[in-house]
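Final report, Chapter 2: Outcomes

The project's central promise was a pipeline that accepts a single protein chain and returns its three-dimensional structure in a standardized token representation, suitable for archiving and comparison. That pipeline is now operational. To close this chapter, we reproduce one record exactly as it appears in the project archive, with the input sequence first and the structure output second.
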Amino acid sequence: MTSIGARGPLVGLELRSMQPLEEAELSGRTALVIADEDALSRTICMALEERGAQASTSQSWPADVEKRVDLLVLVDRRGEGPTLGSLDDVRESMEPVLRGMRQRSWGRVVMVSPSTEASSHRRAGLFGLLRSVALEVSGEGVTVNAIDLGLMDSEVGDEQTRAKLLSRTPSGRAVSLLEVSRGVCFLASPAAAYITGAVLPLNGGLGLGLYPEQFNSS
């Protein structure tokens, strides 16, 4: 067996690269979160600011969206009159932001969309759109990814629907706002620079087809 030390200085370099990233990993970056003014958007903004970014929120595409935006976070709502508009609206509105990112050779786009039966068709369309955009900007320092979001612990609404979602979530619990914000920050971080066109399943296993009642019957 070869010891770690016998592998030479390259291992030291590899281990140093695995050290925790600095809190200011997004220092100097400008972030725009397009979402309803709610606890989720505020938590995402706070998390990005803790990592050095200058973050702001908007409930719709702002008129001055052509201003410098390094990190664009799009939060699509759970079938409640989507903030982002139609797929064509999303693609058209993203264009000036993407153009600036490509010119600066750095940019991050993160879509957050819920996993529900009501939003399944729209979610599939959004994820398909982002994969297409990811391919278009590939190799230009811009990444485009998404988060497939499960039920949030802060979410209120129909108790029957909530119970149904929880029964189909193998982890048996909802996702916290902090976990969602960490997912966004990860996809925006240097650690995710080689990830693009991906969908991060932040949903506790929802959609795996294995539900708690199946576990109990085994």
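Archive annotation: Residues 87-104 form the longest helix (18 residues).
This record, like all others produced under the grant, will remain available to the consortium after the project formally closes.
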